Structures
1.
Amino acid sequence: MSTPLSVREAPPPCRSLGEYVAALVSRLGEQEPALLARLGEVVGARCARISLDQETIEVRFQAGGVVVTEPTIGLADGEGSTDRYTTLDLLDGRLEVTHAILEGRLWVKGEVESVTRIFQAIEILLDGSTRNPELHRLALDYGVDPCRHARPPGSALTAGRRVVVDPDHIPAGEGELLRRLDLLP
Amino acid sequence: MITDTLRPPPLFDPSAAAYKDWLHLNVFDHPSGCVGIFNTSLHGSPNDVRSRAIGTALVHEPGVGWIGNVEVAGIEEVSVGTTSIGLERVAVATDPTPGIVLASARLPADGLEAGITATVSARPVDVPMPFPFGPGWISWYIVPRLSVEGGLVLRARRLDLSGATAYHDHNYGRWHWGDEVGWEWGACAAADAAVTLVVVGPGHPSVRARNGSRSTVQAQGHAIGTMLLADVAGERRSFSSGLVHTDYLGRLTQPLRRLPGALAALHQDRIAPPLPDRILVRASDGVDCVEIEFRPRAAAQIIAADPARRGYGFIHEMVGRFEAVCRIAGRTARVDGLAVFEYVD
């Protein structure tokens, strides 16, 4: 039962944000077409505008696949933006999604239903990645993409840096977030 | 001596997709209070490219927090031997003769490097029969105490482990994550005495209550309770189900380190599981008696995804200090030290 240890010998290719999104969806469909179909049902004809650092793309589902285009002047159904360090911190388990939103490191805008469906689509991709080695490999590629910033140095997580979601506990940043979004009564 | 090997499924095993095998080493550095968790595991048929290996290297340092991370790799990217599982950055192996467990981790981006050699210093416990475990089964091999050589590099600071002790186990069996399975387990290592207490049971009661029928270890159709193994200066006692009573008090409010990050993002509903901040274990057979009080200071949640079908397991590692009174063979020992308790559902 001995197998050789695979060590990455060559760096992965440089990919744009659009190429990563397209690869995510196509690799999901190759391994689990049923999940791809479910993804299409969830997002329907909606258009999402996604920004990562200086890159912005628009994404929509069409004919069983994803179409990635340059941003247009028209309104997208939902918008999300973040930066590379935030995505790496999320992938490395250094940051919770809740904390990223409360700190303003992950920003999402849109009608409630559209935003909910976009998050559902992300959940389908994450769930599918656990049974899809190609998606897992894509995440590893992103971590060491030679055309992107290196990972920030690791840091231990302390209580003050994390958010506890408890029905009886209001996180310190929540009031500030509501004020920033003008949602306080 | 360690008389144990990995247990891969034979060719044409119809339950190969549910194959699990893991090597585990807990390191208790008594002078610094650091507790290390090193684990490498295989999930799914060795012949299925979807199968995964998970390598965990986490150290909790008092006053600092969790250092380290989890590495996930495809089964084809892992070096698997008769008694070893090696990922690119995390590896655990046993050497049967003279009886050592080796753990290494190279996670500089996460502030952790480890090179550990642990030598058996207490008789192993072998439970080779397949215990019914949900729809599958589980078996295990335990070395309750090992002496330690080697060191850690924690955020560029070297920590010598000559004052540490360790605990090792090897679990194997057949189940899918997401099945009706779960367990509780704990290992307590005394600081200045050859005392190790191992607790194994069917799961945290609050987790059982939340999940209904989940989290039961079943044997011959009957749910079994918590068991305790006491190894006190060479004297060993096992307290079986019915002789061990466990109380879970309070709620741990420390936020968890949850790994891998992508699965933590997927399971936002698991961000604050109901873990206790105090655990009392009392075991008595009318002659011998052990009482343990464990106070966790932090917890980590490791999420295991099943590679063959949709399902997840949530492994909670709680670290902290314990105090115990052991009355074994007419002698009373009061001990304290470091401990890890684990709850899985």
2.
Amino acid sequence: MNIEVKNLTKYFGNFTALENINLEIIPGELLALLGPSGSGKTTLLRMIAGLEVLDTNDKGEILFNNENVADKPIGDRDIGFVFQHYALFKHMTVFENIAFGLNVKNKKERPSKSEIEQKVNRLLKLIQLDGFASRFPWQLSGGQRQRVALARALAVEPKVLLLDEPFGALDAKVRTDLRRWLKELQSEIGITTILVTHDQEEALEVANRIVVINKGKVEQIGTPEEVFHHPKNEFVISFLGNVNLFHERNENSEQKYHIRPHELEIVSSNDSDIISKAQIKYIQLAGSQVKIDLEDLSNNKTILVEISHHEFKYKNINIGDIVGITPRALRTFENGAGI
Amino acid sequence: MKTFNNSNGAQSESKLVKYLLIFTAISFLSIMLLIPLITIFAEAFRKGVEAYFLAFSDEYVLQAIKLTVITALIAVPLNLVFGVCASWAIAKYSFFGKSFLITLIDLPFAVSPVISGFVYVLLFGAQGWFGSWLIENDVQIIFAVPGIVLATIFVTFPFVARELIPLMQEQGNDEEQAALLLGASGLQTFFKVTLPNIKWGLLYGVILCNARAMGEFGAVSVVSGHIQGVTNTMPLQVEILYNEYNFVAAFAVSTLLAILALLTLVLKYILEWKVRRQLQKLKEEE
């Protein structure tokens, strides 16, 4: 389904939750709404679902296949919604939970009992929980509950799937497993999906496109590569990972440069093209990259550098060394001068 | 939650205090509550089982029992509906005047029942605000059954709401939203999702509400007019029988109210346990 958000502005009292949002969701894609808490990303998702409505002061439209859905009841929007805290029906079994959306259909549209049973069993297999049909939600782990919630949403064959921080309440390990599984599942069924998250790693890993939201405004829309490597502004670069800030002072101007830890190189302090001299303070070897903390000798600020283990081995770097820092790339958001 | 028993000196010294407190509490409860309860049954059966049952063959007594049941049958369902609506509004929406509404619900607990009854006399009595209009239209509320029902509703309306508000607040409305998103109608959502989640709390509130509705004396006494066989409920009939020195009959009717109280206590105990377990499960899930 083609979803379009046009000039959407939403107020909660005097607070502007969303400001002039324009967004188009491409059928079949997995779109991540990424932003810090309180940025308005969940409000945007809930407005698409119809859980928040446009009040008289609010502006804009939400279109499903070019049709304004402002007056469409939430049950008729063909939406599957997954909540952060699962929102499973506690007094129903896994089977009854998944079958709920089918059982509440009116008589004409409701599938027969055996059809419902077949469908639920198929979904149970899809979420790898066959054999759990008669369990109750409280007998399941967090990851299992969230998969049941997903199956429940998929049972009514929605045209779009909305996920509100679906992995937010889970352990780190379960979270990574589950998001890979979700990614595969999504591309397999090909259902248009919008995922809300505050975890940049999650967004970068699963999404086809990312919408970076801050303080109710869209900062950037793009593929994970675009937003990570070609961030449009300071907020995007600092939200999507660590970044070092360097100032270059000329006679009458000052230039700021944002450089990611992996974009810096450690060289000899005698090199001519270094941008600063620094002392090595801390080396963290655990992890896929070697993380080095340095102290800038000119202003005592911390500089973060990441290099590969391979490079670390032949460079012979030790704590206390005075070294030079040189960038592989320079990035600035001022004067329109990019990389 | 675990409590730790430490067995150091300070603790053992206070053992005397502990037993003293327990002894005081038990003897106080026995004198003030248990002995009176036993007395009710002892007095009722003093002249034998036959005399006890004879009390219930009295027409006025039967009328009083009937009126009490009718009053409860009207007041309890109305308060059930009101209680669910009020708690839903308070727990699931935020609106202007919410804390005022919560305070208002507690009003009957704060006001003396006699005053509650009196308010209705001032409103609907012959000299009251609506008195002349009611007389013109030949509607009698005070000193009639409608007045008794109104006074009972007033006195008992906090019970259901007070029980449901914390339970519904704890549950939030994610489940209801999930049901609506899955295409359930408002009614389906209420009966399939909301009601099963609040059923034990609701039943608990209803039982307390019922016990109070059947046992209310003060408010009902003011509006009833004490017409035997017409506007007397069980508690009022007990008073009349007692004043007529008909002790066996007075205590016999009292035993019914005492049995109701004991049944309520047992059910209350079971339901309290169920509600507590449900809340605990909710907390564990988070």
